[in-house]
Amino acid sequence: MQPECMRGAMHEQDNHLIETFFLKSGDMEMQTPGIVPPLPGGRIVSIDQPVGPRDRGQLGMPGGYAMLLAAMTSTAQAAGADTQVGASSSDTLPTVTVTGRGETAHGPTEDYVANRGTTATKTDTPIMETPQSISVVTGQQMQDQGAQTLQDALRYSAGVRSDAYGLDSRGDWSFIRGVEPTQYQDGMRVFFDFFSNVRPEVYAIERVEILRGPGSTLFGQGSTGGTVNVVSKRPQARPHREIDVQLGNYDRRQVGVDLTGPLTTDGDLLYRFIGVGRDSETQVDFTESDRWLLAPSLTWQPTDRTNLTLLVNIQRDTGTVTTAFPPWSGTLLPNPNGEIGTERFTSEPDFDRFDNSQDAVGWQFEHALDAMWTVRQNMRYSHSSVDYRTLYPDVFSNPQNPFVDAAQRKVFRFGYIREQQDDAWTLDNQMQADWDWGFTRHTVLVGLDYSHDRIQRRQGFSVDTNPFDLFDPVYGSFTAPVALHEPDTSIQQVGVYFQDQIRLGQKWILSGGFRHDWASTEVEGGTNAEDEALTGRVGLVHLFENGLAPFVGYSQSFTPITFTDVFNRPYEPIRGEQVEVGLRYQPPGSNSLYTAALYDITEQNRLSPDPNNPFNDIQLGEANIWGIELDAHANITRSIDLIANYAYTHARTSDGVNSDRYIAEVPAHVASGWLRYSFDAGALRGLSVGGGLRYVGESHDEPGLLDIPSVTLLDAMVAYETGRWRVALNGTNITDETYIASCLSRGDCWYGSRATVVGSVTYSF
């Protein structure tokens, strides 16, 4: 199909008149960056945005650019002789090279395959050149799969158990390689304490990067299992405005607005505004999940060497607690009264709440001093608060038989209240140098980062001895807890780090680095803890011409625990190390990425349930986790997109307290696959259909007394796009399976999410 070329804005630069052209093919606009060499009369043609990966098959080839230039020529000729694109007297086009900006690790992608990332290196690095497993959940994938939470977005990621605690309105809980990951946003830590921060809004996320294995060499406080880095949507040079309306079961109603583009004619000032309003219930009786969000951002680019982006996030979440903490009996194990329903609410309707708020502001600054040196500074300040109050069954005092009646129906309840405020500062200063030395090419990163979080908290417990019927509840009679002030806690960390990515010739990439951290936790009137650690990483990648890239790496982790035990005593930092070997494959000229990896993790001081106190955690001597991961993201044809992965995880305690036991909630086998087919011709053009299977194998509690059965879940989507409109229907767990996500040795179980169906209409203008 001959593309159509549309003319855009003109501006002057370096004594040339630059004119922007937008290439269109059918209803889909495609753009590619770069500047065609000056034309007669001093005019330059600028193609001003990245080509989408789906279009690389055509536009990435010389013939595709010939089509582009031909379209530009015909458009320019129609406008006048002085705008012709290099036409000669024989009407033969000269040979012209268009250089593109391509994908960046912070920008959008148009399908499921991302080729660059920052979480593994803090630099914009091709994934093929990274000596550690990393995967990216793109914005397109989140949209197609109808992700409502960050936890949903991770469902089809290799090595990730995204619903470790099932449906839980209090947070996004997951495991990577058998360990809870550390969560970051835009490269800076966001969670310092349980329940103290809002859950990120998927509509405001550009992509999610998942680093599997330790990342402490760059981030300091990084989990042994991995790091989840949420990348916020940023201002774009290409104007885009949309309104998104969603309706779903459980009375879900949501409206989203996303507006972005230039504020000035020369494009040096860009804006973005994202707003979300949601009113929704959940599968649990008497529970709500409401939200409103305002996320404005502004980018200033005074020169081609300087970029400053300001990011603001104002979010209010109001709701109730979906977690019922039901006992083993009536969920995993039989009960003479049948099953406890997934809709069961075990708290009190007029008392229960889980309200979060956050006001955050920050910036991301970058300036190229010269061709070698670049300086960056990332900063964020956030003020967060939570009002959390609930009641839940006392299944912990006697997990085998928590009932207070012979009929095995009624239990006592605990009451809990927590009022907390967090003020957190994070600051990351970086200097990057790129230079050649002999046959080597170096990218050196030197940095210093700092974080400080001050926690003010009131907390209270109560024991409600009014028997509560789990099978036929009657509400209104309970003993409420009283919140008392607790000592303020101050958490600080300072780290200095160094990294060198060395390209040896054209085929070898050697990466290495180290970091030293000083961390402290100060409890008002209590015991203070100070820790420091030196961590390192080294890795090697070899690039073959056929698209194969084997890699090997060693990395360490250092994770200070920022909360205390029930006796207000600090924990020792968790330390870990990983050895990993892997193989990536990216067939030349394709838009696909395949990865296989084998890893072995050793972790010290892992937290484990206290066998003598169900409300406390103790630290293990050592845990060992090893496994195999297979991952595929592929644009097989222009119409077919595929995601497939499998992970085998062997996770056991290996020394110390509770040695040689299962690590709780970690299934040995997890697999998933998602396929989307898009019709690009004929009467069905614009229609896309997709479906996915998620398999979670059998898991155990830590002593190995409970076996949580495997489950297979089915998801599906259908969408239709025409002109400015997109209409979609998404369903997760569409067969409405009732399943147990996990059960803990302390006595409680967690239900997974039931069937969820959401319809959406998006209008772009």
Our count of helices gives: 5
The quaternary state of the protein chains shown equals single chain
Major β-sheet annotation: 22 strands, antiparallel, barrel
Which regions are unreliable across 5 or more consecutive residues at pLDDT < 50?
A: 1-100
Distance between the termini: 25 Å
Give the helix/strand class. Answer: mainly beta
Question: What is the 3D shape?
Answer: globular
Strand content: over 45%
**What does the average pLDDT come to?**
86
**Radius of gyration from CA coordinates:** 27 Å
User: Count the strands?
Assistant: 43
Helix content: under 10%
Kindly summarize this structure in a few lines:
This protein is mainly beta. The protein is 5% helix and 53% strand.
Q: Overview of this structure, please?
A:
The protein has a 22-stranded antiparallel beta barrel. Strands 1, 2, 3, 4 and 5 form a 5-stranded mixed beta sheet that branches. The chain is 5% helix and 53% strand. The chain has 5 helices and 43 strands. The radius of gyration is 27 Å and the shape is globular. It is mainly beta. Residues 1-100 have low confidence and may be disordered.
